[in-house]
User: Which sequence fits this backbone?
C-alpha cells in the first residue's frame, strides 16, 4: 500500500509540478487508517523504518568527493560551517519557541543538510516517545514546503543581489533544503549555476554521516532515554552503507549505470518510506505542533540563507 501511494505521488508530481515527497506525505495521511489497524500495519511499519534506512544508505551512491573538491577549499569550508552553524543555532534558540533539543535537532538538521531525507535519517537515531512520528511528519512537511518556496524565490534573489553564476550556484546549493529543488532552481538560471548548486548541495548531503555519528555519540553519552529504550548504535548500519557507497563511488569502483540504479532506488525507497510515515500519522496530533514550530523552522531556514550569503560576500 505504501508503494501504491508512492507511485501515485510520483505520477501527480510529474503531471502537476508539485514535490513528490510532499504529495506522498499528504496522500499517506489521507489513508492513515491503513497504518492504524488491519493487515497493512506491519507493512506500513516496515516501510517507515526499514525502507527508510535502505534509501538513506543508497543515497551515498550520489556522493563523489573528488568532484566536490573541485569547488575549492573555501567554498567547502563555507558550506560545512553553514551546516554546523545552523544546527547550533537551532539548538540554541529552540527554548525560546518552547521546544526541546530533540525537535530542534530534527528541524535544524533537516534544514542544514538535505531536507526530508535528513529528517528521516536523524529521526531514526533520536530517542523515541509518543510524539516522535508527529515531529517527523511536521518537519518533513515543513522543509518540503519551504524548499519549494525557496526554489521559486531564491533565483529571483540571486538576480536581485547581482550574484555571478558560480556565486548563485553556491547560494542555491548551500541554502535550499531538498536536492530536487536545488537542481530545479539552479538550472532555471544557467547550466553553470545548476552544476555548481548540485555539487554544493552534495557537500551538505555528505555531512549527513558525520552529523549522525556525532549525534549518536552525544545521545549515548548525555541523553536521558525513556525506560527500556536502548542507546542508538555508535554508527547505524544505514550510515555505514552510505559511507561505503560514497567511498566506492569516489574511487570510481562503482559503474555509472549502477550509480544511476542506486540513485533511482534511493528516491523510490525514500518516497515509499515517507508515504508509510504519513500512513502512520494522526492529523489531529500533527495540528497540535503549533505555530512556534513553524516559526522555529522558518528562522532556521532564514539563518542558513543569511549565513551562506554573508560567506559568499566575504569570499568575493
Assistant:
Amino acid at each position: 500500500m505504501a508503494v501504491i501511494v508512492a507511485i501515485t505521488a510520483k505520477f501527480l508530481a510529474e503531471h502537476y509540478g508539485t514535490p513528490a515527497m510532499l504529495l506522498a506525505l499528504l496522500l499517506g495521511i489521507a489513508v492513515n487508517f491503513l497504518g492504524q489497524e488491519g493487515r497493512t500495519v506491519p507493512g506500513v511499519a516496515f516501510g517507515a523504518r526499514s525502507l527508510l534506512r535502505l534509501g538513506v544508505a543508497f543515497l551515498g551512491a550520489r556522493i563523489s568527493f573528488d568532484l566536490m573538491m573541485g569547488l575549492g577549499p573555501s567554498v567547502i569550508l563555507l558550506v560545512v560551517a553553514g551546516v554546523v552553524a545552523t544546527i547550533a543555532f537551532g539548538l540554541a534558540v529552540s527554548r525560546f519557541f518552547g521546544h526541546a533539543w530533540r525537535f530542534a535537532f530534527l528541524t535544524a538538521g533537516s534544514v542544514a543538510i538535505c531536507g526530508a531525507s535528513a529528517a528521516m535519517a536523524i529521526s531514526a537515531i533520536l530517542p523515541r516517545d509518543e510524539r516522535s512520528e508527529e515531529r517527523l511528519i511536521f518537519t518533513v512537511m515543513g522543509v518540503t514546503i519551504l524548499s519549494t518556496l525557496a526554489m521559486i524565490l531564491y533565483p529571483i534573489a540571486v538576480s536581485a543581489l547581482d550574484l555571478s553564476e558560480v556565486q548563485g550556484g553556491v547560494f542555491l546549493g548551500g541554502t535550499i533544503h531538498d536536492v530536487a529543488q536545488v537542481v530545479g532552481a539552479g538550472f532555471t538560471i544557467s547550466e553553470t549555476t545548476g552544476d555548481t548548486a548540485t555539487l554544493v548541495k552534495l557537500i551538505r548531503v555528505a555531512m549527513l554521516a558525520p552529523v549522525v555519528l556525532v549525534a549518536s555519540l552525544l545521545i549515548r553519552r548525555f541523553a536521558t532515554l525513556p525506560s527500556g529504550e536502548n542507546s542508538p548504535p555508535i554508527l547505524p548500519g544505514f550510515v555505514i552503507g552510505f559511507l561505503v557507497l560514497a567511498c566506492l563511488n569516489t574511487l570510481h569502483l562503482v559503474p555509472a549505470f549502477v550509480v544511476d540504479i542506486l540513485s533511482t532506488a534511493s528516491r523510490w525507497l525514500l518516497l515509499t518510506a515517507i508515504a508509510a510515515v504519513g500512513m502512520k500519522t494522526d492529523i489531529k496530533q500533527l495540528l497540535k505542533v503549533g505555530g512556534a514550530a513553524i516559526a522555529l523552522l522558518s528562522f532556521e531556514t532564514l539563518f542558513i540563507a543569511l549565513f551562506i550569503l554573508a560567506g559568499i560576500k566575504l569570499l568575493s
Remarks:
- DSSP finds 16 helices and no strands in the chain.
- The radius of gyration is 19 Å.
